């Protein structure tokens, strides 16, 4: 039996950086890709884009200094030449690559200025008889200061000294037709030359399937454990008292849709339990989440608990404030408004009302959860557009409401309702969000007509202008959304101001407003209010209006340079129209040439109105990382599995997780330990 390799402190520190804390972690540190050093490709046959191993004689070596210090060598094989180029190099490399040396080089071939070249190839000197390798060479994810060679040595030592016990009960393994774990790990670290490299690189090989399954299973287990842990924590039980809630339903000018009734019933049941609710309310833009939030708030208030409603932008928070004031005033409840831009004195007054318990409902931006604010008795925190908030903000919110129930007892925490119009694709819901309870509003209020979407080339901008004018003159209201300029917020602002100027000059007969992120909030709110009551006919806006803005009379939207925007953003923006009974139109102005990605996005948004389908397409285009948004930094990302491509494995993992927890608790614990022990865990926020 081999002894465990000694590891220096510096190497340990580097290993920690890449998530390796225990020797056993090395086994699951799997290659990103493989280099094929089992073959030699004649230089005459190499093609740009391929990663290959070549062999030849160095015929020329020089260091040039312009445009920057570079070592350039020519490698010749059978009369054909290839350039080797190094931007960083050491004296021993210059020596290795001196003229007449016989060299084996492996790297990606590309078309250089002088001809085909490899940049920073891996080179070694060889003799006439140096044999080729017999297995593919793994390339591991690593960090500066930790070489592939060191990693390889440590991993092959770990493979000998650490037992890679297969915890999956044989019953499931054969049922799912999976390979053994031990052989899978061995194979992936050391694949023999006859395995098709492509099956390894695109991770379709059965050994990869097994690893990905294990990873997904561990994720399922951890989500379930979390969910269960939550039911051991304490929150105030807030059952429906049918006082304010019934009162609001009576005065509401509309009846709840079936979907709204269903989700409110789910929330209502959760609130009645003495454990913290963590429920995500999903509903496409315009599906009517606000009224559901209002009902949930009233249920807490009926039980003499306070409620906080937080929105990611001032515009949206203000809009909630106005709407809820409207709805709740007849019931004798006056919400308090709190945002970062309030005057000091007003902020203090609001804070006092919140601290004394005089206020039942506080509405605002994340300012609600700053240190100076203490709630008297917070029972429910509602977060609108939750994906726009960061983990830190949600953590602050979580801490805010904690209060001791009695000395020496566990503290009680508020219930949480998170709302989002960004639908979670099915696979994402099954994986990263599996610890939350989810309610879905899957129907729009009656009387809406679907928005018509048109794609119009920028060349026809003048026609679009005319269309805006006609619409406004006939009593409709319109948005003109200015392009997103990712590199510079300032440029974006400038563009919005110029567009505004141009529209004002072109259409002196129209009342036009401008709203953008840099305006102070009083101004912003003033403009929005004027648009809402119809005093303004056309609103020029940056993407600040993306979330939540609700002006039902607006029925035309122009999105300038729509090719620059993401799918979720386009869908959100388009959702600002089509909220009233009038036929609405969304014009997507685009500028050619379109990138492949932009073309695909515009096609998806043109062909679909269903937010769930759009989100599914978005997941395909962007991967889960970005869609997860804020959650991403709080949840352990999957390293190997791809929830979209590996949906089948995900479903199997989900199906097996419960049985494993119930019948094989030891195995479940071992799985969690192996895969999750090192993961920081913000899941509870
Ligand atoms: P979102 O889910 O995008 O937040 P809102 O809550 O802003 O949607 O609702 C969109 C619009 O639909 C609002 O003007 C709201 O008052 C209205 N609304 C909500 N529910 C209904 C309903 N059941 N019947 C008619 N209109 C409704
Ligand atoms: Mg909303």
SSE layout and pairing:
Blueprint: H1 9-17, H2 23-27, E1 33-35, E2 51-64, E3 70-77, E4 80-86, H3 91-96, E5 102-111, E6 116-119, E7 122-125, E8 137-139, H4 148-161, H5 170-175, H6 181-189, H7 197-201, H8 206-230, H9 244-251, H10 258-271, E9 278-283, H11 289-302, E10 306-310, H12 314-328, E11 336-338, H13 344-356, E12 361-364, E13 378-383, H14 391-400, E14 403-404, E15 411-412, E16 415-420, H15 426-430, E17 437-441, E18 452-457, H16 461-473, E19 477-481, H17 489-506, E20 512-515, H18 521-532, E21 538-541, E22 554-559, H19 567-574, E23 585-590, H20 596-607, H21 611-622, H22 624-628, H23 647-663, H24 665-676
Parallel strand pairs: 4-6, 9-16, 9-17, 10-12, 10-13, 11-12, 13-16, 18-23, 19-21, 19-22, 20-21, 22-23
Antiparallel strand pairs: 1-8, 2-3, 2-5, 3-4, 5-6, 5-7, 14-15
CATH-derived architecture of the domain at 244-441: 3-Layer(aba) Sandwich
Low-confidence stretches: 630-634, 680-685
Question: What gap, in angstroms, lies between the N and C termini?
Answer: 46 Å
CATH class (first level) name of the domain at 244-441: Alpha Beta
Q: How many beta-strand elements?
A: 23
* Gyration radius from CA atoms, angstroms: 30 Å
What is the overall silhouette? globular
Strand order of the largest sheet: 11-12-10-13-16-9-17
Query: Beta-strand level of the residues, as a percent range?
Result: 15-25%
Average predicted local confidence, pLDDT: 88
Largest sheet: 7 strands, parallel
How does the helix and strand content classify structurally? alpha/beta
As for the CATH topology of the domain at 244-441, it is: Rossmann fold
Distinct ligand kinds:
adenosine-5'-diphosphate, magnesium ion
Number of helices: 24
Under CATH, the homologous superfamily of the domain at 244-441 reads P-loop containing nucleotide triphosphate hydrolases
């Amino acid at each position: 039996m081999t002894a465990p390799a000694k590891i220096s402190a510096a190497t340990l520190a580097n290993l920690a950086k890449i998530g390796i804390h225990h020797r056993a972690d090395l086994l699951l540190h799997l290659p990103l890709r493989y280099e094929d050093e089992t073959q030699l490709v004649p230089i005459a046959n190499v093609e740009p884009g391929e990663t290959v191993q070549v062999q030849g004689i160095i015929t020329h070596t020089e260091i040039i200094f312009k445009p920057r210090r570079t070592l350039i060598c020519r490698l010749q094989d059978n009369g054909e030449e290839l350039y080797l180029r190094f931007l960083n190099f050491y004296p021993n490399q210059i020596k290795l690559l001196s003229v007449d040396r016989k060299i084996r080089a492996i790297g990606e071939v590309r078309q250089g200025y002088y001809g085909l070249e490899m940049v920073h190839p891996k080179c070694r000197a060889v003799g006439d008889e140096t044999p080729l390798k017999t297995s593919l060479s793994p390339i591991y994810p690593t960090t500066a200061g930790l070489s592939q060679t060191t990693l390889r040595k440590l991993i092959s030592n770990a493979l000998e000294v650490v037992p890679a016990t297969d915890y999956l009960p044989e019953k499931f393994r054969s049922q799912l037709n999976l390979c053994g774990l031990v052989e899978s790990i061995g194979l992936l670290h050391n694949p023999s030359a006859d395995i098709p490299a492509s099956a390894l690189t695109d991770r379709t090989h059965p050994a990869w399937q097994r690893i990905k399954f294990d990873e997904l299973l561990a994720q399922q287990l951890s989500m379930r454990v979390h969910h269960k842990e939550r039911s051991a924590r304490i929150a105030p039980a807030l059952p429906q008292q049918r006082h304010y809630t019934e009162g609001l339903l009576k005065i509401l000018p509309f009846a709840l849709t079936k979907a709204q009734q269903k989700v409110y019933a789910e929330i209502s049941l959760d609130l009645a339990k003495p454990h913290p609710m963590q429920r995500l309310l999903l509903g496409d833009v315009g599906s009517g989440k606000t009224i559901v939030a209002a009902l949930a708030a009233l249920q807490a208030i009926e039980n003499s608990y306070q409620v906080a409603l937080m929105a990611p932008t001032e515009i949206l928070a203000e809009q909630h404030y106005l709407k809820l004031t409207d709805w709740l005033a007849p019931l004798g409840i006056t919400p308090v408004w709190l945002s970062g831009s309030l005057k000091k004195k007003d902020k203090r007054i609001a804070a006092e009302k919140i601290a004394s318990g005089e206020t039942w409902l506080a509405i605002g931006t994340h300012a609600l959860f700053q240190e100076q604010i203490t709630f008297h008795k917070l029972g429910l925190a509602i977060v609108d557009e939750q994906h726009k908030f960061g983990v830190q903000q949600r953590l602050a919110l979580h801490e805010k409401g904690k209060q001791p129930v009695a000395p020496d007892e566990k503290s009680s925490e508020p219930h949480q309702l998170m709302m989002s119009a960004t639908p979670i694709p099915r696979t994402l819901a099954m994986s990263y969000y599996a610890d939350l309870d989810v309610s879905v509003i899957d129907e729009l209020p009656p009387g809406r007509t679907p928005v018509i979407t048109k794609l119009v080339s920028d060349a026809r901008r003048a026609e679009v202008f005319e269309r805006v004018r006609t619409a406004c003159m006939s009593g409709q209201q319109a948005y003109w959304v200015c392009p997103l300029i990712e590199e510079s917020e300032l440029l974006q602002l400038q563009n919005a101001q110029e567009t505004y100027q141009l529209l004002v000059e072109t259409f002196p007969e129209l009342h036009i407003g401008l709203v953008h992120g840099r305006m102070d909030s009083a101004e912003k709110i003033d403009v929005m209010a004027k648009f809402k009551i119809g005093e303004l006919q056309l609103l020029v806006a940056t993407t600040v209006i993306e979330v939540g803005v609700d002006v039902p009379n607006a029925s035309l939207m122009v999105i300038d340079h729509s090719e620059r925007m993401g799918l979720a953003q386009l869908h959100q923006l388009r959702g600002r129209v089509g909220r009233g009974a009038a036929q609405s139109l969304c014009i997507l102005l685009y500028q050619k040439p379109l990138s492949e990605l932009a073309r695909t996005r515009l096609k998806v948004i043109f062909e679909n109105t269903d937010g769930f389908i759009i989100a599914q397409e978005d997941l395909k285009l962007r991967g889960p990382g970005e869609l997860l948004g804020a959650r991403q930094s709080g949840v352990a990302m999957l390293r190997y599995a791809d929830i979209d491509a590996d949906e089948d494995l995900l479903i199997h993992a989900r199906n097996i997780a419960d049985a494993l927890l119930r019948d094989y608790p030891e195995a479940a614990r071992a799985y969690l330990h192996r895969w999750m022990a090192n993961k920081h865990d913000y899941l509870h926020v």
